[in-house]
Amino acid sequence: MRLLALFLITVALAWLSLSAGRTWLTPPEVTRALLDPEGAGRMVWHLRLPRLAVGIMAGACFGLSGLVFQTLLRNPLASPDVIGVTQSAAFGAVAALTMGAPVMFGAWAGGLAAILFLGWFATHPRRGLETRAVVLQGLALAIFAGAATETLILRMNDNSAGMALTWLSGTLNGVAGPEVGRALWLLPLALPLLLAGRALDRIELGDDLARALGVRVGLLRTGLGLCAAFLAAGAVSLCGPMGFVALAAGPVGRMMARGRPSPLAAMLAGAACVTLADTLARTFAPAALLPTGLYTALIGAPVLIMAVRRMARG
Amino acid sequence: MPFQTQNLSIRLGGKRILQDVTFNAPVGGITGIIGPNGSGKTTLLRALAGLLSPDTGHVLHDGQDLGRIPPRDRARRIAMMPQTAQAPAGLTVRELVARGRTPWLRPFLPMTAADQGAVDRALAACGLNDLAARAVDSLSGGQRQRAWIALVLAQESGTVLLDEPLNFLDLPHQSELVSLLRTVGATRSVMMILHDLTIAARVCDHVLALRDGRLVAFGTPADVLAPAPLKQTFGIDFSCTRPDGRPVILPAAL
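Output (structure tokens, whole complex):
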């Protein structure tokens, strides 16, 4: 029931996003535009729809990745934007940009490097992966990668540096057809995570009990962790490191799924958050073209605080 | 016999935790594992659950090498309650107990009527019928411990491994849980880690004593819970008396 409500909210926000902008469209006008891609719907199909689609997919990727990391590490803080995966991916993307290499591969390389670093340094010879160490070392990695990215940007010329800084806050400006194609690449990575709800739920009981219940915890943690890292990094390459979405979508999705880790709910929460944020970015101060990431943080922070408060009260 | 170990040795992070442990655990009844802290009790239990693979030697379960049984099949045969288990916030007792059905569930499909029946039986066996809808984190220590045991029972495995099930319980709850464990031991093979030697002497059919990762003794409580093997295990003197015909075992210095 709650999942259905979350889905309907996301659809409503998507509809709002299609009608909002410099010229507002009424609901019948949106329908007409959607049915007529070459005529009346040119603006919607070429500008608003790609932007909406990429925003939804990036938000869903961030949300899913956040829930998976938080559950695998049994820590609500352990989202990719806190443990440095997002920041490393951003560094990789900016580095690829300065070298003229494909941005998505740069982001993937950065995300992969972050996962390997954390897996290597936080593994205790006797106790296995120390989930608390991952969060603390990840925090250090996030700060390090952020500083490295700023160093790269400071060496750019003013124009590129300005664009890079906007991108670093997370923006959907300039998103068009090619980005939709790249976003679709991420769907195969999301599939295993969407199907992993039961495994995630069991891993929450603790590694030993999950394993005694027949769950292949080591294999799943590696596989799902890699998928989640590639998803977050892929989303970074599409729209920059959109703040707060990954951190907030997990707890919000849980609230919608009666406390259980629900990949679908986290995806919807992430998608809804980015869609709303981008609609605000385009309507609140359209001339300023403020980055969408500013609004995800503005929405995400209070929603996260409310979700945690509700969960703490049971 | 459920478990047969042969020269079982386990190293973790370069440190030798278990060395040359060889024993045959009999079918049915309760086997207690005793030993001082750091003697390798939990490591032995994790090895018996198939969570650790031996460096040398092997563990057989019903004559089959444990390492060759796929995890899901293994979980249908051997259940374990580790000390590290944690109940996620807000989970109800029934939901927690239902997690024990994991190795029996069909992928991506909900529980069957048979699964629900197993959960009902486990709840009833542990006296949790009235608490089934309560959140696990709102229970008292004794109730929570019974919920974890119910999870293990719902797994319906022939062998049950318990890591210190009596820990952190007051005496009334300990005595209540011991009678529950006795009924479990009547139909399944139970191996559990215990600290209280008097309880071990009264509940267990067999006792296994460990010291520094080596097997000190394996046998009936009368044989193992005697002053000489206990001194060998713990390094201190024990007084083993029978004031009313039943054993009481305490450090002699107390």
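The longest strand of chain B covers residues 15-25.
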